[in-house]
């Protein structure tokens, strides 16, 4: 009975016949998509969405593009925003660029991934002060 329904559906279908070429092309499309995942979509969007520095500063980017970038920033390639150290899912902390104690928000634009030592050293200092102290320690 099950095969009768399936055959009946296939004969009533208005779609064109799907031959081996269709299935091979679909397999290759899925294989290519699976390897890159969201990063591949981010790259593809980067080809078509041309953004200038002014667009980024003024916040005029496509919301989908921004969302993919944030996913990439927090889940795919994690680096500390301050010392550029490689992070993993256990060592990442989120830092408020403008500290909440100084009027900063929890908006995604105000959060950056960073390592625990940098987050502790920055604490509630303004960004310029933290970067200046860090440069003085290195020099």
How would you describe what is shown here?
The longest helix has 29 residues, at 20-48. The radius of gyration is 24 Å and the shape is elongated. The chain has helices at 2-12, 20-48, 53-58, 63-76, 116-122, 127-138; strands at residues 93-96, 111-114. It has a two-stranded antiparallel sheet. By secondary structure, it is mostly helical. The relative contact order is 0.08. α2 crosses α4. The protein is built from six helices and two strands.
Counting H and I runs of at least 4 residues, what is the number of helices? 6
| Average pLDDT taken over every residue | 77
The radius of gyration computed from the alpha-carbon positions, rounded to a whole number of angstroms, is 24 Å
Shape assignment: elongated
Helical coverage, percent range: 55-70%
- Stretches with pLDDT under 50, minimum 5 residues: none
Q: Major beta sheet, specifics?
A: 2 strands, antiparallel
How is the secondary structure organized here?
Elements: H1 2-12, H2 20-48, H3 53-58, H4 63-76, E1 93-96, E2 111-114, H5 116-122, H6 127-138
Antiparallel strand pairs: 1-2
Helix pairs in contact: 2-4
Describe what is shown at a glance:
The chain is mainly alpha-helical. The protein has helices at residues 2-12, 20-48, 53-58, 63-76, 116-122, 127-138; strands at 93-96, 111-114. Helix 2 (20-48) crosses helix 4 (63-76).
